[in-house]
Amino acid sequence: MDQEEIFMKKIAMVGAGSMAEALISGMVNNQFIHNENIWVTNRCDSQKLQQLESKYSITTTYRLEELFQGSDVVILAVKPKDAGAALAKIRPYLTNQTLLISVLAGVSIQTLERLAGKNLAVVRAMPNTSATIGKSATALAFNQALSQDQKGLVEKLFATIGLTRFVEESHLDAVTGLSGSGPAYFYYLVEAMEKSAAEIGLDANLAKELIVQTLLGTAEMLKNSEKPSQQLRHEVTSPGGTTEAGIRVLEHHQVQEAFIDCIKEATQQSKRLGMKLSEELIHSRMNATGD
Ligand SMILES: NC(=O)c1ccc[n+]([C@@H]2O[C@H](COP(=O)([O-])OP(=O)(O)OC[C@H]3O[C@@H](n4cnc5c(N)ncnc54)[C@H](OP(=O)(O)O)[C@@H]3O)[C@@H](O)[C@H]2O)c1
């Protein structure tokens, strides 16, 4: 499927919160599909729908027949706890041709298939909060029903909010622990650098500028250089110099080990939450239908 064909498609979005808006903004800014062909609904916040409509020239509605008419791509962007109610509502409009894309953290493809009650193509995306500025690192997992055309479409769609990589679904918890929660780890590090800047007598605004530029420069180096991160660090660490003195303190406090434990724990938490959530969603579905 080429970009011209994609441009004419219709996408139905269920959920109009921050992740939905990041995707809308990405699609609109990159002319991914015709603005008016992005159809959005939410639970009840009509003001939010009006805002999105006037900001991005997209279409919003509460009439589900209208939302799903001629739309074979559906993006589910509600909170995971609301997935059961949202899917129960849209289930009658899903067909075997529908491509269901979920950005819900922790809800497995199998659970989505069961809640949808159809044999349809399902993609699970794990973006991060930098999607709002088009700089997400997004991992995508999919089921066997996904066609090559659909895979290409999904890859292009998520490229509008940043980097995309396909992974096995079994790796999504690790992705969540690493890059899903990743922005918060860097914010935490920056917080520490800001606190230290205050203690060593630097103006807060100046310190923030210096820290952010240092972070950007480091990210660019890592992106553009073929050298591993450890080598880049060694190259800027002269024996007996300032960096070495600072790193010695980090090593004394076992900061690397702490980061490794942090990411492992976030991964485990993603597994635990995902299992609990999937069980709850299936259980409430069974209660509702008497299955
Ligand atoms: N934000 C992130 O950085 C991020 C990163 C990775 C993954 N995610 C995933 O993205 C999903 C959405 O997160 P978010 O931050 O965008 O949430 P959010 O801002 O709270 O938005 C949730 C949206 O879902 C709508 N909704 C709830 N129940 C609904 C229903 N039954 N039918 C239709 N719409 C319904 C809400 O409508 P009302 O406002 O009318 O209630 C709201 O528009 C989550 O599952 C999260 O795991 C988010």
Question: Quick gist of this model?
Answer:
The chain is of the alpha/beta class. It contains 13 helices and 8 strands. The chain has helices at residues 3-7, 18-29, 46-56, 64-68, 83-90, 109-116, 148-159, 172-180, 182-199, 204-224, 229-235, 242-252, 255-289; strands at residues 11-14, 38-41, 59-60, 73-76, 99-102, 121-126, 136-142, 162-166.
Keywords summarizing the entry:
alpha/beta; 13 helices; binds NADP nicotinamide-adenine-dinucleotide phosphate; eight-stranded mixed sheet; 56% helix
Report on the architecture of this protein.
The chain is of the alpha/beta class and 291 residues long. The protein contains 13 helices and eight strands. An eight-stranded mixed sheet has the order 3-2-1-4-5-6-7-8, sandwiched between helices. Helix 8 crosses helix 13 and helix 9 packs across helix 10. The protein is elongated. The chain binds NADP nicotinamide-adenine-dinucleotide phosphate. The site of NADP nicotinamide-adenine-dinucleotide phosphate has 28 residues, from helix 2 and helix 5. NADP nicotinamide-adenine-dinucleotide phosphate binds next to helix 2 and helix 5.
